[in-house]
Amino acid sequence: MKTLRPFLIALLLVGGFYFVTNHAVESSSPTGARLRSLLTSAHLAGPIALTNAEAAPSYDSEEIENIGVYKKGLPAVVNITSTAVGYDFFYGPVPQQGQGSGFILDKQGHILTNYHVIADAKRIEVTLHDKHKYQATIVASDKGHDLALLQIKNAGDLTPAILSDSRNLVVGQKVYAIGNPFGLSGTMTRGIISSIRSIRGPTGAPIEDAIQTDAAINPGNSGGPLLNSRGEVIGITSLIAQNGADQSSGIGFAIPINTAKAVLDDFAHYGRVRRPSLGIASLPIGPGLAEQMSLPANYGVLIQRVVPGGSAERAGLKGGTEKAYLDNTPIVLGGDLIVAIDGQQINSTQDISELLNGHRAGDTVTVTAYRGKRKLDFHLVLGEAGDVKA
After folding, report:
1. Cβ 278 vs Cβ 335: under 8 Å
2. Which of 52, 192, 339, 363 could cross-link to 300 by cystine, CB 3.0-4.6 Å?
3. What is the pTM of this model?
4. Domain final residue, candidates 151, 186, 202
């Protein structure tokens, strides 16, 4: 009897459940109706009437532009994985991987990226937008400008990026970044040019005319293209302003593409970088400063000092001797005021940088400058940046 007791209890429970679901619930009482509703709520009485769009989705003009930029730019963008050798707690060698982006320059498989993406790499793997992977070699690198040229071989029909001109960029124009942030390949973000300014790159070297943008730039974007609204490359995304967090702060920077073109030209001619230099440290001058300093022109760059043994010193240009302060920043007065190079008016250090992009070390230029009230011309043979010690 004891062995049958569990069986009888189970039979009573099943019978009770059957009675409730098939008789009590069928009662016309409100309680019965509610109970039946609860028990059958998991089953649909019929199909749900969905409301569908009457036509295929359409895009507004802004969306069409975004889609067009992405389709045009994506095929040239690559993901780069670099493997270096680190050491563990016991000084044992361990592989360390880093990720970045880059873009294809030609059908021969040349790829441009940042130097810091591949620095110290023992092995470099490039993944194209179609997910095919290739081993890459370093053709040339320039730590000072934070640029590196890679190459992959036997990659089939490649789609090179279209390079624009970064001379006449305007604050406010739209820009797009495509890359590999946090390993998320094929990611595009959008923003505007926030400013054009000189900054210090990841290695501490100056980057002239850097493009500041609020487009989201994150780890993994480095080396990827910054595009204009036509899908043309205007810069190479390189770094972000950090405030304690290694992620987008709304302030990112890109190396202007014209600087990259000049570096690539040096690679082609010399196999290394030989960027030209005047051999000066200078201060941009505007109308306000010119009036305060009683200068003969309200524009130009005032030479603070000439690099010993550099091009400017050899040409006879002079730096200042009188120490002063400008908004708590020490400056030197009394140097020559450069107002033109080869007849082109100079308003800022950016003007000098852009002009030098069209020259090589060893070229001769005519520098027009005021010494006191006298306007003089100096024939200056451009030196090589970094070829003399300051």
Report:
1. no
2. 339
3. 0.71
4. 151
Catalytic: 116? Answer: yes
Active site residue 130: no
Residues 85 and 147 in one domain: yes
The verdict on 230 and 281 lying in the same domain is no
Whether 186 and 203 map to the same domain: the answer is yes
Same domain, 81 and 180: no
pLDDT tens-place values along the chain, 390 residues long: 555 566 666 666 656 656 655 554 444 555 555 555 554 555 666 788 888 888 877 899 999 999 999 999 999 999 999 987 555 544 555 556 788 999 999 999 999 999 999 998 999 999 999 999 999 999 999 988 899 999 999 998 999 999 999 988 999 999 999 999 998 999 999 999 999 887 777 777 778 789 999 999 999 999 999 999 999 999 999 988 765 555 556 899 999 999 999 899 888 888 888 888 898 988 899 999 999 999 999 999 999 999 899 999 999 999 999 998 888 888 899 999 999 999 999 998 878 888 887 888 899 999 999 999 999 999 999 988 754 433
Domain count, the chain: 3
Q: Which of 110, 145, 146, 194 is catalytic?
A: 146
- List the CATH number of the domain containing 257: 2.40.10.10
Known catalytic membership, residue 359:
no
Contact 169, 234 (CB under 8 A): yes
Q: Give the end-to-end CA distance of the chain in Å, rounded to a whole number.
A: 106
Q: Which residues touch 302 (CB under 8 Å, ≥6 apart)?
A: 282, 283, 285, 293, 295, 320, 333, 335, 336, 337, 338
